[in-house]
Amino acid sequence: MKSIFSVFSGAIMVTALAVQAQQPAHHWSIVMHGGAGVIARANLTPDAEAAYRASLKRAIAAGANVLDKGGSALDAVEATINILEDDPLFNAGHGAAFSAEGKNELDSAIMDGSNLKAGAVADVTRTRHPISLARAVMEKSPYVMMVGTGADAFAARTGLEQVDPSYFFTEARWQSLVKQLQKDGRPVPPRPAGAPPPGPYIPVAQLDESADSHSYGTVGVVALDRAGNTAAGTSTGGLQGKMPGRVGDSPIIGAGTYASNQSCAVSGTGTGEYFIRLGVAREVCNLVQFKGMPLQQAADQVIHKELEALHGDGGLIAIMPDGQRAWSFNTPGMFRARQTEGGKLEIGIYNDEP
Ligand code: ASP
């Protein structure tokens, strides 16, 4: 027969274990970028700057809210990017950059650091939220990557919202394409079918994309949830004025997007060709995993040494299961924000901000 003491101490142990199980093992954390490039104070009006900061704040709040309620890193990444894909200020979804033929061809990827599952799409033209399609490829197909009309058709079959391609059109991005093509002496395509009639418009940002080797505004998110799992996602319209069919680094697992709980989760932005050649996202994780580098040092080494050695431009955000966070970029600016459970929200644009 059990003594009262052993029953009592057993109950204490069970209670202690239950409390332990309830306690979050990790504080959640989220980092996002809204693209890197020639984003200098001189070419961002105070109104434009305020608009970008407000958009970054709104988007990261959505992801933070998911994590704060105990949601997964994957859900937080998708929720944040969905908002940015609907925001005309960013080069993803509505507001995406155009190909030289005046089309929006969208690329996206998502990765689950807990199991190395990944999904990616490229050259999508009808799916409102490419990041959700990337997730559907990961969860509802046996594949990692799908492209073009087949990917859009799969999106429709899985019930993801389809839109007319003109949904992605924004006047500001179009005017910037026209300017860029004229500057390069390339033919200007006709205004896309279904686009609103041209009219006077006030550009939100005075950023001169033609001065840049890539279009600013790609979006990416990395997150760590209370269960200790990481995830990464990236969504983009790619390079403004790109040749139709060109695919950048964003949907390439290991280049623009990567997540592993064994090392880190990364999303990059910049001229994608360099990011593909270096395998930037996986490279950062390699330095962390196999060289034991602190995350910020690994991010800086890849951006400021390896990327610069190739004369590449851009930046990245990263997070680790132990809570380390990093951002690094070699451009004048990168739209960015981060928040950790119990900490304060940080938002930055220029390279002289922390
Ligand atoms: N990395 C993207 C691409 O090359 C563009 C960007 O991040 O701005 O498609």
List the helices and strands and how they pair.
Blueprint: H1 4-22, E1 29-37, H2 46-68, H3 73-86, E2 106-112, E3 117-124, H4 130-140, E4 145-147, H5 148-157, H6 171-184, E5 219-224, E6 230-236, E7 257-259, E8 265-270, H7 272-278, H8 280-291, H9 295-309, E9 314-319, E10 325-329, E11 333-340, E12 346-350
Parallel strand pairs: 3-4
Antiparallel strand pairs: 1-5, 1-11, 2-3, 2-6, 5-6, 7-8, 8-9, 9-10, 11-12
The site of aspartic acid (ASP) has 15 residues, from strand 8.
What is the averaged pLDDT score? 91
Low-confidence stretches: 15-22
Number of domains: 1
Q: What is the terminal separation in angstroms? A: 65 Å
Task: Compose a concise summary of this entry.
This protein has 354 residues and is α+β, with helices and mostly antiparallel strands. Helices cover 35% and strands 21% of the residues.
